[in-house]
Structure to design on (742 residues):
C-alpha cells in the first residue's frame, strides 16, 4: 500500500519520495448530492491548495423563474433543493409579500414555522448519517436514517408528501394542522426527546468519531466572518449568526431564541468537523422545543389572506415594488430578492442565494493543511447542497499524476479511521 | 441596530456623495412587528468608500450582490446585514449603484471582503460586468466556454441566450 | 438468446448518477436502502462504479456539463443493463422544461427502460421501478 511508503513529514520532502495524486471521482456518489469538481494541490498527503468548480447542477432557475408567473415560480423554487425543500418557498413568499404588501394571518405563520422546523430535523439527521458514512460508520448511517423516518412520516401526515410539501403560498399556507393531527406531532416530539440522547452519545461521546473529526477541517472565527459564512458552518466557528435570532420572522419573534454554538455543549469553538456535529445535533433539540412551543401557542383564525388563487394572481399582477426575504434553512441563510412590475405577471428580477453559495469559499480554509483521506468528511462538513465529489483532481507540483476512483477515496478515509482508532 | 444609526454614519463620512436613501418598513413576524430595510444609493466611484465605512463602524455580513437590467444601465444591489449576533438586532442594508452599459466595469471589493468573490464572479458571467482587480474571473456556475449573459434583458443578449435555450417538452400550441 | 445469469436475481447492483437534479429523488433512493425499506435484503445495493452495475438509476434533467458524463457512464456499464429514470425532471423535464443549460430529458441521451414518475417518487415506487427493469430484462432476454 502506498500509504506506508509516503513520508508525511514535509520537512524531508527533498530526499524522500512524495507521490502525487490526481483523483477524478465520478460525478456520482452513493450518498448523494449534486456533482461538483474540486482541484487539490497536494504535497504528499497534505493539501496545500484547493480550487472549487461548481456548475454541474446549474439549471438556470432564476432565468426560468423570471419567465413564469409567481405561482409557477413558487413551485419551481421548491425544487431548487429537495432536502431543504420548504426553505426556498418560505423565503420567496416573504419577499413577494413584502414587495406586494400582502398580509399573512398569524396561524399561517405558526404553521410555516412548524413545518420549517420539522424539515430542519430531517435535514440535520440526514447530514449526520451522511457524515457517518463518509467516515466509515455505516451502522450510524442506518441508525440515523431510521430515526429520521419518524420525522418523514410526520411530514407526510401533516402535509401529504415526504419531500416537496407545497405548504407556503403568498398570503398564508395551503394546509392546516388541525387539532386531530396535533397528537401526531406530540408523539414525534416524545420520540425525538428520547432518541436525541442516543444520537449525541453515538456521535459526540464516541472516541473514533472524535479522533476523525477533532481538529479536522478547521475554520477560525475571523475566517468565517471575512468569508461571509452562514449557518451551522459559521456557528461551529463561534460566530453567533442565525436569522431566526437576528431578524425574527414568522413566529420566531415570540420565542427566546439564540444561535447555537459549541459553547452550548460546554466546549470552546474551534470550527472543526466535530463542532459542526455538535451544532447540528443541538439544533435538532432546539427545533423540537420550537415545534412544541408553536403547537401550544397556535393561534386560531384563517390560513390565507387571499383565499382564491385567481384573486391572488390578479393582486400579484398589479403589484409593484421590491422585497427581501430571509430564512434560516438547515444549511444557513437563504435570501431571495424580488422586484415586481405592475401589469406584468413575471417578476422583473429574482435573485436567489442559497446557503451553500455563501459557504463555497469557506470550504477553502477548511481543506488546507489536512490529509487526502479527510476530503470526504470535510466536504460533507458544510452540509453542501450542491456537492460532493464530482471530480477531485490532486496535482502535485513535484510529480506526475495518478488516478483513484471515488470508491478508493472513501476507502482511504475508512482506512484512516481504522489506523487512527487502532 | 436602527436604520438611523447606519444612515448617520454613512452621511457623516460620505456627505453629499450619498445620493439617496430610504427606509422601507414591513411586517415580517406573526406578532405584527415590523422590520425596517435601509436602502442607500451611491455613485460607482463611491462604492468602495461606502463599504469601507460600513466595515469600519460595524461588522457587516455580505449576503449577495443582485442585479437589475434597466435598459441603458445595470443597477447592482449589494445586500448587507448589520447588527447580527443579538436577538432582534439585525438590519438589512442594501447599497445600490448604477453601471452604464457603455462602460460595464466596477471596482472589486474582494480585498475588503474576501467572501464577495463568489458574488462578483456570478455577476461577471451573468451580466458581463468586469470587476477591476478581481483575483479570479472565470465562470463559476456557467460552463467555462459559455459566453452568453442570461440575465441581460436587451435584445441582442436575449437573442444570444435564446439560441442556447432548449424546450424539453413540445406541447402543441400551448404554453406550459 | 441465453438466460440472464442467475446472479441477477440474487445480487442486483445499482449505480446512481445525478445529472443536475435537486436531490429529492437522490435522497429517496438512498432512503430505499435504509432499514425502513431495506433493499439490501434482496441483494440490491449501490455500487461505487458503473462497471459493476446491472441497473443505472438516473435522476435530473441533464445539464450541459453532465451530458458527456452521462453518456460515458452508460457506455462504461456492461451489458446486460437496464436504465431506470427516477423522477419527473428526468422523464420529461418536469419543472425545468426550458432553460439554456438543460439538454435533457434523459431519453434524449441514453435509451431508457423504466420511468418512475413523481417529484420525487416514494422509495417504494423506486424499488418497484428497479424490479420492473429486471423483469423487463428477463422477458427480453440478454441481447437488447
Amino acid at each position: 500500500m502506498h500509504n506506508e511508503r509516503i513520508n508525511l513529514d514535509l520537512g524531508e520532502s527533498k530526499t524522500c519520495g512524495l507521490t502525487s495524486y490526481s483523483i477524478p471521482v465520478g460525478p456520482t456518489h452513493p450518498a448523494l448530492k449534486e456533482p461538483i469538481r474540486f482541484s487539490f494541490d497536494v504535497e504528499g498527503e497534505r493539501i496545500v491548495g484547493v480550487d472549487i468548480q461548481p456548475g454541474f447542477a446549474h439549471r438556470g432557475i432564476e432565468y426560468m423563474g423570471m419567465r413564469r408567473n409567481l405561482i409557477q415560480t413558487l413551485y419551481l423554487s421548491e425544487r431548487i433543493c429537495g432536502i431543504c425543500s420548504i426553505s426556498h418557498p418560505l423565503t420567496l413568499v416573504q419577499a413577494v409579500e413584502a414587495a406586494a404588501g400582502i398580509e399573512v394571518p398569524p396561524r399561517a405563520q405558526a404553521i410555516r414555522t412548524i413545518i420549517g422546523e420539522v424539515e430542519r430535523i430531517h435535514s440535520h439527521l440526514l447530514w449526520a448519517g451522511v457524515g457517518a458514512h463518509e467516515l466509515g460508520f455505516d451502522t450510524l448511517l442506518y441508525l440515523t436514517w431510521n430515526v429520521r423516518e419518524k420525522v418523514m412520516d410526520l411530514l407526510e401526515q401533516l402535509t401529504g408528501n415526504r419531500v416537496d410539501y407545497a405548504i407556503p403560498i403568498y398570503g398564508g399556507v395551503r394546509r392546516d394542522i388541525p387539532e386531530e393531527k396535533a397528537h401526531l406531532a406530540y408523539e414525534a416530539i416524545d420520540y425525538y426527546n428520547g432518541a436525541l440522547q442516543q444520537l449525541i452519545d453515538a456521535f459526540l461521546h464516541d472516541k473514533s468519531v472524535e479522533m476523525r473529526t477533532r481538529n479536522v477541517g478547521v475554520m477560525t472565527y475571523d475566517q468565517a466572518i471575512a468569508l461571509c459564512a452562514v449557518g451551522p458552518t459559521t456557528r461551529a466557528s463561534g460566530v453567533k449568526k442565525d436569522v431566526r435570532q437576528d431578524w425574527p420572522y414568522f413566529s420566531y419573534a415570540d420565542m427566546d431564541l439564540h444561535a447555537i454554538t459549541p459553547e452550548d455543549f460546554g466546549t470552546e469553538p474551534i470550527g472543526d468537523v466535530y463542532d459542526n456535529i455538535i451544532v447540528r445535533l443541538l439544533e435538532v433539540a432546539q427545533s423540537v422545543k420550537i415545534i412544541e412551543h408553536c403547537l401550544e401557542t397556535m393561534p386560531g383564525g384563517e390560513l390565507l389572506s387571499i383565499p382564491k388563487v385567481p384573486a391572488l394572481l390578479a393582486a400579484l399582477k398589479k403589484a409593484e415594488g421590491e422585497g427581501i426575504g430571509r430564512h434560516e434553512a438547515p444549511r444557513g441563510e437563504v435570501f431571495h430578492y424580488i422586484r415586481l412590475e405592475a401589469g406584468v405577471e413575471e417578476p422583473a428580477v429574482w435573485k436567489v442565494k442559497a446557503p451553500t453559495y455563501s459557504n463555497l469559499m469557506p470550504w477553502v480554509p477548511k481543506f488546507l493543511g489536512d490529509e487526502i483521506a479527510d476530503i470526504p468528511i470535510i466536504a460533507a462538513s458544510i452540509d453542501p447542497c450542491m456537492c460532493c465529489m464530482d471530480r477531485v483532481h490532486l496535482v502535485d507540483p513535484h510529480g506526475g499524476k495518478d488516478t483513484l476512483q471515488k470508491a478508493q477515496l472513501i476507502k482511504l478515509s475508512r482506512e484512516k479511521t481504522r489506523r487512527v482508532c487502532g | 441596530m436602527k436604520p438611523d444609526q447606519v444612515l448617520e454614519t454613512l452621511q457623516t463620512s460620505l456627505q453629499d456623495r450619498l445620493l439617496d436613501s430610504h427606509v422601507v418598513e414591513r411586517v415580517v413576524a406573526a406578532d405584527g412587528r415590523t422590520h425596517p430595510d435601509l436602502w442607500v444609493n451611491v455613485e460607482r466611484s463611491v462604492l468602495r468608500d461606502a463599504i469601507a465605512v460600513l466595515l469600519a463602524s460595524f461588522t457587516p455580513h455580505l449576503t449577495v450582490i443582485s442585479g437589475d437590467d434597466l435598459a441603458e444601465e445595470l443597477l447592482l444591489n449589494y445586500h448587507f446585514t448589520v447588527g447580527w449576533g443579538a436577538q432582534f438586532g439585525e438590519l438589512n442594508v442594501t447599497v445600490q449603484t448604477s453601471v452604464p452599459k457603455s462602460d460595464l466595469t466596477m471596482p472589486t471589493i474582494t480585498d475588503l471582503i474576501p467572501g464577495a468573490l463568489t458574488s462578483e464572479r456570478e455577476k461577471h458571467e451573468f451580466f458581463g460586468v468586469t470587476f477591476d482587480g478581481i483575483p479570479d474571473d472565470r465562470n463559476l456556475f456557467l460552463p467555462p466556454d459559455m459566453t452568453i449573459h442570461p440575465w441581460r434583458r436587451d435584445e441582442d443578449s436575449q437573442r444570444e441566450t435564446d439560441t442556447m435555450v432548449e424546450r424539453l417538452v413540445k406541447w402543441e400550441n400551448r404554453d406550459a | 438468446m441465453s438466460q440472464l445469469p442467475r446472479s441477477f436475481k440474487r445480487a442486483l447492483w445499482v449505480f446512481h448518477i445525478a445529472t443536475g437534479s435537486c436531490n429529492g429523488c437522490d435522497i429517496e433512493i438512498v432512503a430505499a436502502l435504509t432499514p425502513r425499506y431495506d433493499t439490501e435484503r434482496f441483494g440490491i445495493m449501490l455500487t461505487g462504479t458503473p462497471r459493476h452495475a446491472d441497473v443505472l438509476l438516473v435522476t435530473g434533467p441533464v445539464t450541459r456539463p453532465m451530458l458527456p458524463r452521462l453518456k460515458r457512464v452508460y457506455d462504461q456499464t456492461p451489458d446486460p443493463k437496464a436504465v431506470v429514470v427516477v423522477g419527473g425532471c428526468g422523464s420529461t423535464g418536469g419543472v425545468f422544461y426550458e432553460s439554456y443549460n438543460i439538454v435533457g430529458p434523459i431519453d434524449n441521451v441514453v435509451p431508457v427502460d423504466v420511468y418512475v414518475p413523481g417529484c420525487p417518487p416514494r422509495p417504494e415506487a423506486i424499488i418497484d421501478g428497479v424490479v420492473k427493469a429486471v423483469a423487463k430484462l428477463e422477458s427480453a432476454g440478454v441481447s437488447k
Q: What stands out?
A: The interface with chain A takes residues 15-18, 20-31, 34-36, 46-50, 60-61, 63, 65-66, 69, 73, 89, 94-96, 98-102, 119-120, 122 of chain C (CB under 8 Å).
